[in-house]
Amino acid sequence: MSFEPQKVSASGRLESLDALRGFDMFWIIGGSQIICAILKITDKPWASELCKQFQHPQWEGFRFFDLIMPLFLFMIGVAMPFSISKRLERGDNKLQIFRHVLIRVLVLCFLGMLINGKLLTYDIHKFQITYSVLHVLAMGYLVAAIIMLNTKPRWQIVITAIMLLAYWIIQTYVPAPDHRIVGTYAPGASFGDWLNEWLLGNWQGEWRRPWIVSMTTYGSTAMLGIFAGQLLRSSRNPTSKILWLVSLGTGCLVVGWVWSYQFPIIKKVWTSTYVLYAGGWSYLLLAIFYLVIDVWGLCKWAFPFKVIGMNAIVAYMAWNLFSPAFGQVARVFVEGLKQHIATPYYLPIERTGTFLVLWLILYLMYRTRTFVKI
After folding, report:
1. What mean pLDDT do residues 234-246 have?
2. DSSP code of 294?
3. How many domains does the chain contain in total?
4. Is 103 part of a structural domain of the chain?
5. What is the rounded CA–CA span in Å between residue 161 and residue 1?
6. pLDDT exceeds cutoff 70 at 227
7. Is the pLDDT of residue 226 over 90?
8. Angle formed by the axes of helices 68-89 and 272-289, nearest 10°
9. pLDDT for the residue 180
10. Residue/partner pairs of 56-65 with CB below 8 Å, 24 or more apart
11. What is the per-residue pLDDT for 18?
12. What range does the domain containing 254 cover?
């Protein structure tokens, strides 16, 4: 089996990574709502079951929507070998790079607080040190950066394995001081839950997760991405890279699935099995995008995703802060169709219009080469 020589952009970027980032963000900024609105047109059981893939399970289990968050953190890891190597090559030392990492972490945490921490209430009594998507990305990025800047690839693998095992041991065998039952994975029952309650209490707000302990598994997800980035940056031929990505993905899926019989896959507490299972799918998706876009050079179909992926942080913040406004703009153009179309058919049109308002803003930024980076 062989493939055509690898094709890269003039800037040296991995086109597939931008497209995959946009594909991932698409589901957050309206894609899942559009698909579910279409599926609700029919009352067939298969449509209802498919729509469930765009909802998180109550606790244990894994659905398509559970891949969105770890896939984004995985891609942060993929980009790190490229970005850090570039900075080292231009003469930056590790201290300068780490200072930049800390700034990015603080900015991501601040933006997360804007969405979930009630900063915009301007009321200190309502402020929350909360769990959020951007908080998870920041913590995972920080842990992975520390490991990557201070260890060689072989030790990076060892440390990642140790972090996954350490999380399992802490959550399974370490008792909390209030004598909770050891080895249970029920909500709020682990040592990690107790630690967050003890240190933060009501500052946590409504999303109470054991994220202090989970920093080990957030970092592990980013490290899986770093391994993929190191592979793609290596001198191996494209065929070898793709086979390695597929092998790593398959291996992570198998290990995560087998281990889940003892240590369940739980997204809300980011278990080690969740890291491996989501990481497995992330490797496979990256392999597909890399093969089709960077190796075969079939890029045009991915352009809508690339527009999103080049300004992913803008897309995420804009959707979470202003999506009602985007909906109002969309209704100016489509609400008149209500009198001609049955309600179940109108909803997908309105949801698509809301998404397109944001996409057109991102497209304008893309055309003017306005890219917001942290």
Report:
1. 95
2. I
3. 1
4. yes
5. 32
6. yes
7. yes
8. 70
9. 62
10. 56/267, 56/268, 57/267, 59/186, 59/187, 59/266, 59/268, 60/185, 60/264, 60/265, 60/266, 61/265, 62/265, 62/267, 62/274, 62/277, 62/278, 65/27, 65/32
11. 95
12. 15-367
4: three-class secondary structure by DSSP: coil
The pLDDT confidence band at residue 364, using thresholds 50, 70 and 90, is very high
Could you tell me the two tokens for 314?
């803008």
Written as six digits, the tokens of 55 are 């909802």
Structure tokens at 125: 């009594």
**Pick from 215, 210, 194, 80: nearest CA to 137:** 215
Phi, psi of 49 (to 5 degrees): -65, -40
317 Cβ contact partners less than 8 Å away, ≥ 6 residues apart: 111, 114, 115
Place of tokens 């289990």: 61
Distance CA 308, CA 361 (A): 10
As beta bridge partners, residue 60 has 266
Pair 84, 294: CB distance under 8 Å: no
Least reliable range by pLDDT among 10-14, 194-198, 234-238, 278-282: 10-14
43-57, 109-123, 286-300: which has the minimum mean pLDDT? 109-123
170 in a domain, yes or no?
yes
5, part of any domain: no
Asked if the structure places residue 374 within a domain, the reply is no
In one-letter notation, the amino acid at residue 32 is: S
CB 30 within 8 A of CB 8: no
Q: What is the pTM of this model?
A: 0.91
CA distance 315 to 322: 10
318-342 pLDDT, tens per residue? Answer: 999 999 999 999 999 999 998 888 8
